[in-house]
Amino acid sequence: MHGQLYVLGNGTNKEVYVDGTLVGEPALYINGYLNNNGGEVYNDAGEIELTGNWENYPGVAGSYESNGIERFTGAVNQIVKGTMNGTTGNINQFYNLRVDKTAAGQFVSLQTNANVNPSGTVNFESNGIIRTDISSHGNNGSLYAYELYVRNTAVASMIGYATSGTNKYIEGRLRRQVSGSGDYYFPIGIQSTFLDGEEPFHINFASAPAANILSYVQPGTIDLLGTVMFCDVGTDPDPALGTTILDNPGSPPDGILDRLETNCQYSVEWVATASLAGPYDYTITVEPGSVLQAECPFYSATWLGELKFTAKDGIPNNAALASPAPFFTPGYMTCPNLFTIAGLSSFSVFRVHGITDGALVVLPIELLDFTGQTESLGNRLFWTTENETNNDYFVVESSADAASFKQIGIVDGAGTSTNRLSYNFLDEHPVANTTYYRLRTVDFAGAIGYSNTISLTRMSNEQLSVSPVPSMSSVTVVFAADASQEAIFTITGMDGKVMLNKKWNLKPGQNEQSVDITSWMPGTYVVQVDGVNAPLRTKLIKQ
User: Fold this and answer.
1) Residue 244 or 514, more confident
2) Which class in CATH covers the domain with range 361-457?
């Protein structure tokens, strides 16, 4: 059928009957939408394929009933509306949901909670993403209004999904029914422009009641865990003096416990919530993308590789801070590594941490400002401090993506001072048109801290920058103009929604605009200034 299928009835008869029990399993193909408005559509082991929206509005007796296949195809975003979260029989729920879009990154979006039958499956056949809302919420899965509930307890009730990347996963909220034992995969993620898109995990149950697990990804807290761990990570050059093991890199364990502290500002965390209290016995493995891993400055040793681990509720291996559990008991020898935690009995928030030899603390200074401007020789950074305490030096770091930073220079600190001091640094080799910068401070004891992140964009004689990046409340937009002129200043979301549009009367030199973004949804926004030599753009990230 080419066009739209609109079913209007009193539900006393099967107004649309797709009989798949015949030889060849015939399909109903709709090049458009399906709208069941109070009628009855019965998919009897057949297949309904459509390129438009799916709308199901049951009447008193009418409904959608299926033990067949529902296939979403085509190149446009398709929306599921109405009532599709039935729990009785085969009524008002998908039976075998198929996503078969024409290209990667195309969406089937939910404008309602959608259930998949206890005997059915979800299959990503070629391309496509199931988004559990009609628009994206950036990197915050907790904000998605709806969920996909896979009621089949079989491990293989979800198939064809990717295990990483920006295609064939659930953007938003996924609920899976579990029972007994088995390894259940949760191919969840966030908007593909954040981190790596998909950030999945899987749970291997040794035992579990007949419960369901709701899962999503959300922004991680910026607070540092600060947990001390004792394990043998290398050879101590001088145990009597307690010399840092970083002075002996790549050395093997020597049987002497080393004191380590977490050193990671995690950018995302996995939330898993069970419908029943348990008891459970399971192992969880999170599979973060490369961008997320780069958020954590891992301690590295050639014999061990990156030292990293997943923590539940921020506590390693699900150990309470007051209990004599691993990582808090002297004599514990094995250092944490990889992304798996075993022997868990309850659910909550999981995070990835890195380990370093030394504490990551707050800045040993009061940083009044951190700004920059582009010059003919490169990008010049400026910062002002007050009340420095044992501040040894600043490490200047740059990045092309605001995630993976590298050291580009060192500037000596003032030690201890109560005076207001100004610093600057010239980056002669910016890594991209838009380059992100941050400062790492190091005190005399080796403790470190980080500043906010700013960005500088080089596109013409004019320069445009935004700071801080990311921000939760407000940002300052700085534009360096060549001459007096009138420009149009706009900020637009990735969905095309215009958040701000105003005239900006520029003067020669630096011009500033403060923008309150407190009420904005988390995500990436495009900042643009028109009316100059060429439209200038940069990114604003709301956390």
Assistant:
1) 514
2) mainly beta
The partner residues of 109 in beta bridges, in order of sequence, read 79, 131
Task: Output the six-digit token pair for 441.
Answer: 């401070």
Q: How far apart are CA 308 and CA 335, in angstroms?
A: 9
Does pTM top 0.85 for this prediction?
no
pLDDT tens digits for range 102-122: 999 999 999 999 999 999 999
Fold of the domain spanning 459-543: Immunoglobulin-like (2.60.40)
Mean pLDDT, rounded, for 394-415 = 85
Q: What is the DSSP letter of 295?
A: T
Q: Around Cβ 206, how many Cβ atoms within 10 Å? A: 13
Are the C-beta atoms of 152 and 176 separated by less than 8 Å? no
Q: Write b or e for each residue in 368-403: b if 16 or more Cβ atoms lie within 10 A of its Cβ, otherwise e.
A: eebbbebeeebbbbebbbeebbebbebbbbbbeebb
pLDDT digits (tens, 9 = 90+) for 326-359: 444 444 456 666 788 888 888 888 888 777 654 3
Q: Is the confidence at residue 16, as pLDDT, over 80? A: yes
**Residue ranges per structural domain of the chain:** 5-219, 228-356, 361-457, 459-543
Characterize 316-349 residue by residue with b for buried, 16 or more Cβ atoms within 10 angstroms of its Cβ, and e for exposed.
bbbbeeeeeebbbeeeeeebbeebebeebeebbb
- In this chain, the answer to whether the domains covering 361-457 and 459-543 adopt an identical fold is yes
464-492: b (≥16 Cβ within 10 Å) or e: bbbbbbbbeeebbbbbbbeeeeebebbbb
Render pLDDT for 196-248 as a digit per residue (tens, 0 to 9): 899 999 999 999 999 999 999 998 765 555 566 667 777 766 655 555 555 56
**Residue 427 tokens, joined:** 């980056």
